[in-house]
Amino acid sequence: MGMLSEFKTFAMRGNVVDLAVGVVIGAAFGKIVTSLVDKIIMPPIGLLIGGIDFSRLAWVLKPATVGADGKEIPAVVIGYGDFLNTLVQFIIVAFAIFLVVKAINRLAPKKEAAPAATPEDVLLLREIRDSLKK
To answer: Quick check: helix, strand or coil at residue 83?
Structure first.
């Protein structure tokens, strides 16, 4: 089998196509959640705790300066506000995935436990026992 036909077989397998669809839907869902957090959830929270815009929260390690040649040297900052927004987005996405998985598990048919196969040595020992009883 040539490499091209092997790749075609791999790419057309159901799991790969399902994964591709999941990635595309996940990316779109990520954009929706980002918009939800940045534009709907965080502004009221910021307003409730004093009109803070979380995306602008930062810890300035070194302020911006102007160099000897007249060029501006940007400030060195740790933007923890963006981190807080991303953390809220992660929690929302994780909770949504939890709900989806929980719903799928509820809808999936319950699998009955397969009877455990008896090892060959146990079967042989049973035969010997039964022969000795006769």
So the answer is: helix
Could you tell me if 80 and 57 are in contact, meaning their C-beta atoms sit under 8 angstroms apart? yes
37 CB-near residues (< 8 Å, 6+ apart):
85, 88, 89, 92
CA 38 to chain centroid, in Å, comes to: 20
Dihedral in degrees, nearest 10, Cα atoms 20, 22, 24, 27: -140
Residue 118 confidence (pLDDT)? 78
Question: For the segment 16-25, what is each residue's pLDDT rounded down to a tens digit?
Answer: 777 888 888 8
Cα separation, 89 vs 66, whole angstroms: 37
Helical (H) or strand (E) element with 18 = helix 14-35
Q: Is residue 55 within 8 Å of residue 87, measured between CB atoms?
A: no
Query: How many whole angstroms separate alpha carbon 60 and alpha carbon 75?
Result: 7
72-115 pLDDT, tens digit each = 999 999 989 888 888 888 888 888 888 888 888 888 777 776 66
Q: Give the three-class secondary structure for 35.
A: helix
Task: Decide if 59 contacts 77 (C-beta within 8 A).
Answer: yes
Residues 6+ apart with CB under 8 A from 59: 77, 78, 80
